[in-house]
# Entry
Amino acid sequence: MTNDDLSELTIAKRRDVILERMASAAKWAGRTSSDINFVAVSKQQPDDRVLAGLEAGQTIFGENRVQEAMGRWNGAFAEHRESLELRLIGPLQTNKAEDAVLLFDVIETLDRMKLAGALVKAADKTGRMPRLLIQVNIGVEPQKSGVLPDELPAFLKSLKTEYDILPEGLMCIPPSGEAASPHFWWLANLAKDYGLKTLSMGMSSDYETAIKMGATHVRVGSLFFGART
Ligand SMILES: *Cc1c(COP(=O)(O)O)cnc(C)c1O
# Structure
């Protein structure tokens, strides 16, 4: 069965297939499948699909825009909020730090000291601090956000000394149009070098590869919910 075939299935069935494939990839790599989490990327998806995801038992969701996420998870689906884990996987502006800290359980896109400062300030004010991942610009692409791999050690050190922040792990979006596996491999090595345990990598087209290379969180959107509207 190719990835494209999933569009014929219900969202609940697609979830079963994705979880099965995740388990096979984990087994291939000699890993425990309970160590690997399926993050359903609900950005730009209509409510009926998100509801179908919730009804299928999905509990971890990823969003890339704070405003859109607030509309959804404080709005139509507010009653589900308590039983879910919400992860911000898109760029965060400092002026949205307080909203983000209030809504998300995990922010995967910490990429600069100014943002760290804004998050700490928002945490002091709200009494809530999400777990944090550092986004790494693993392909060293000029237009992409993320800490450059070479700058990661200094960034980690500054986070610790200036704000006493200990991130949980790393996240990356490899360059499009290139094989993802060398980038996944490199991110996994960086995480190992710095003793970070969470690795968010892999999307609809390459989540199985990412698991084979050590991903603890795969972010799957269109394969699960269908093409974005
Ligand atoms: C949109 C998005 C995804 C999901 O992409 P699909 O190809 O639809 O699975 C994953 N990660 C990030 C950071 C995204 O913005």
Notes: The chain has a mean pLDDT of 96. The CA atoms of residues 117 and 162 lie 9 Å apart. The radius of gyration is 17 Å. Strands lie at 37-41, 60-63, 85-88, 106-110, 131-136, 169-172, 198-200, 217-220.
